[in-house]
Amino acid sequence: MKIGIIGTGNMGRILAEAILDGKAVSPSSLIITNRTLSKALEIKAINEEIIVKKSAVEVAKQSDAVFICVKPHDVYKVLEDILPVLSPDKCVISITSPISTEQLERVVSCSVVRAIPSITNRALAGVILLTFGKKCEEKWKKQLFDLFTTFSEPMEIENNITRVASDIVSCGPAFFSYLTRRFISAAVKETEIPEETAVKLASEMLIGLGELLRKRHYSLQTLQEKVCVKGGITGEGIKVLENELGEVFEHLFQATHVKFEEDLKKINRQYPK
């Protein structure tokens, strides 16, 4: 299978590198391009067998599965450009959450999929969220599940939970990175611990936490219960979190959903009804 990636910015590059590291396909089966071609050439520098093309049309023409990894408002223009070379046996995969598979199917006649990746895929871990178009051929569902399994945990979702699922899977690493940095800053401010030491300790703690969950030694609930001994120090810290966090996460999801609705209105103007 020839895989094309149109757009090698942050997520496009992460996807390309995960595909290579996961050995999903050989480097010579990966065809990429970017509006600023030097970004695509940076990926080629990792492996000379990767094929770089100057245009989206060239990538789509030579690929079986075509990943569109550009900004949401640029997707429609890319679809228009590559439409003449999209034969019915190809599959178009958009990584953009505001664009539905129904909208993609109104523009192209081949199989379509929405696949929302996460930065965690770069470590060959984490989830990738999949929504298949109604006309998506069964062969593509199987092939893409097999492809994504090499570097992630593919999970099929319904359209109505796209935003919240994306918040958890795709935005979640940024949210929890921010919380961890605040955790570290507070430790440095309130004690004599050097920042470098606090960063090292917190990073290793998160890695260990991930391993405990991955190996299913504990669930989130049982892990807290194991660490939080009745009357102990951890319990006092939990009380502070319970008292002061309030509805911060409820407000977080409310804010992301408001922004998502704004994005949907802009995107909907581009696509045929």
UniProtKB/TrEMBL annotation:
<feature type="domain" description="Pyrroline-5-carboxylate reductase dimerisation">
    <location>
        <begin position="163"/>
        <end position="261"/>
    </location>
</feature>
<keyword id="KW-0521">NADP</keyword>
<dbReference type="InterPro" id="IPR036291">
    <property type="entry name" value="NAD(P)-bd_dom_sf"/>
</dbReference>
<comment type="pathway">
    <text>Amino-acid biosynthesis; L-proline biosynthesis; L-proline from L-glutamate 5-semialdehyde: step 1/1.</text>
</comment>
<dbReference type="Pfam" id="PF03807">
    <property type="entry name" value="F420_oxidored"/>
</dbReference>
<dbReference type="GO" id="GO:0004735">
    <property type="term" value="F:pyrroline-5-carboxylate reductase activity"/>
</dbReference>
<dbReference type="InterPro" id="IPR008927">
    <property type="entry name" value="6-PGluconate_DH-like_C_sf"/>
</dbReference>
<dbReference type="InterPro" id="IPR000304">
    <property type="entry name" value="Pyrroline-COOH_reductase"/>
</dbReference>
<dbReference type="InterPro" id="IPR053790">
    <property type="entry name" value="P5CR-like_CS"/>
</dbReference>
<dbReference type="InterPro" id="IPR028939">
    <property type="entry name" value="P5C_Rdtase_cat_N"/>
</dbReference>
<keyword id="KW-0963">Cytoplasm</keyword>
<protein>
    <recommendedName>
        <fullName>Pyrroline-5-carboxylate reductase</fullName>
        <ecNumber>1.5.1.2</ecNumber>
    </recommendedName>
</protein>
<keyword id="KW-0560">Oxidoreductase</keyword>
<comment type="similarity">
    <text>Belongs to the pyrroline-5-carboxylate reductase family.</text>
</comment>
<dbReference type="InterPro" id="IPR029036">
    <property type="entry name" value="P5CR_dimer"/>
</dbReference>
<dbReference type="GO" id="GO:0055129">
    <property type="term" value="P:L-proline biosynthetic process"/>
</dbReference>
<dbReference type="Pfam" id="PF14748">
    <property type="entry name" value="P5CR_dimer"/>
</dbReference>
<keyword id="KW-0028">Amino-acid biosynthesis</keyword>
<dbReference type="GO" id="GO:0005737">
    <property type="term" value="C:cytoplasm"/>
</dbReference>
<feature type="domain" description="Pyrroline-5-carboxylate reductase catalytic N-terminal">
    <location>
        <begin position="2"/>
        <end position="97"/>
    </location>
</feature>
<feature type="binding site">
    <location>
        <begin position="6"/>
        <end position="11"/>
    </location>
    <ligand>
        <name>NADP(+)</name>
    </ligand>
</feature>
<keyword id="KW-0641">Proline biosynthesis</keyword>
<comment type="function">
    <text>Catalyzes the reduction of 1-pyrroline-5-carboxylate (PCA) to L-proline.</text>
</comment>
